[in-house]
Amino acid sequence: MSHPRIVALALPVRTDDIDFAGVVSNIVYVRWLEDLRLAMLADAYPIARALSDGAAPILLETQIAYERPVTIQDAVSGRMSVTEMGRVKWHVAAEFAVGERVHAHAAQVGIFIRLATRRPIAPPLPLRERFRPVSGPLQG
User: Fold this and answer.
1) pLDDT tens across 8-55, in order?
2) Which of 52, 109, 136, 138 is 20 to 30 A (C-alpha) from 84?
3) Distance, CA of 8 to CA of 52 (rounded, Å)
4) What CATH number has the domain bearing residue 120?
5) How many domains does the chain have?
6) Which residues pair with 82 in a beta bridge?
7) CA distances from 70 to 62, 115, 139 (A)
8) Is residue 138 part of a domain?
9) Considering the domain boundaries, does residue 140 fall inside one?
């Protein structure tokens, strides 16, 4: 991926990802979003560091628009970028594609909390510095 603020992953389709209709189950996209978000954090602010700092990421909202089915024969790639970095909340956008054709779009909203108090805190500085928001479609 040529854009430094976009995280991209190849996402394998496993046999247990397929539902009764022979396509990837909707819940699998939630797992793929987690994989992308953790890859994004690993690059800037790994979970182990967050926990040692007494902080943790929390999801508030997930939206997924399914446009085309994905089957077990498909080679899926996922891409994610930060679209907004507020005082407390951070927003990400993702897309799932087979080749150049996008099969689903997603958006998530999250916060970080201080583990000792369970209260929201500002997104950590390393995350804010590494992933300044990208506007528009995910393009590399």
Assistant:
1) 999 999 999 999 999 999 999 999 999 999 999 998 999 999 999 999
2) 52
3) 27
4) 3.10.129.10
5) 1
6) 92
7) 20, 38, 21
8) no
9) no
Token code pair at residue 13: 């389709």
* Cβ contacts of 14 within 8 Å, gap of 6 or more: none
**Helix, coil or strand: residue 106:** strand
Coil, strand or helix at 15: helix
Contact 50, 40 (CB under 8 A): no
Q: How far apart are CA 18 and CA 88, in angstroms?
A: 37
**pTM, full prediction:** 0.88
CA-atom Rg of the chain in angstroms = 16
Question: For residue 104, what is the DSSP state?
Answer: E
CB contact at 8 A, 13 and 77? no
Contacts by 30-33, CB closer than 8 A, 24 or more apart: 30/62, 30/64, 32/76, 32/78, 32/94, 32/96, 33/62, 33/64, 33/78, 33/80, 33/94, 33/106, 33/108
Query: What CA–CA distance (Å, rounded) separates 69 from 102?
Result: 10
Hey, what are 118's tokens? Answer: 């369970």
| 49, two tokens | 């560091």
